[in-house]
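hey m, so remember when u said the tokens were messed up on ur end? i reran from scratch. heres the input so u can diff it against urs
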Amino acid sequence: MGPEAARKISPEEYLALERKAPFRSEYADGEIFAHAGASRTHNLIVVNALACLHAQLAERGCEVYSNDMRVGIAKEGPYLYPDVVVVCGNPVFQDEHMDTLLNPTLIIEVLSESTEAYDRGGKFARYRQVASLREYLLVSQGEPRVERFARQANDKWLLSEISGLEGSLRLDSIGCELPVQAIYTKVTFPQ
């Protein structure tokens, strides 16, 4: 007889545990995955992007959330924590706790060595299942570079990229400009 398989937990069990936990964990396919801490550079980029978007969206029908807002891909999961998430229109939450957003418009992930492959691959594949998601940004920590994926009418995703500190990203889904210089305020890059 082989070793017992690890018991899968239900989405309801995950949410009950997560709401009491002192740290964040993501959930997919019955398994819980610890969410790693972030570097100074990562935090600066997140705060810079959040501040820039908040300033532009404060008087409009959109809300900007930091990396503590959980996004549910469906009511039964997976459940993920983007670095920055924007919802325009009425936010739809999983339940009365209002801590699991189901209808993001824009998601930003800041890439790190430990998460880059997942952010580009499996995590983006999961996010693409969310019908409301219009744009997905991947922001590099190692150099001034931002990749923008925009959902097209045929449900395909169009990639555009900006490198260097000059220039700005037009975020059509939320009607904002995101200057690259603003994203990288106070960030220093390796030589």
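this time it looks ok to me. The radius of gyration is 17 Å. if urs says something different then somethings off w ur setup not the seq
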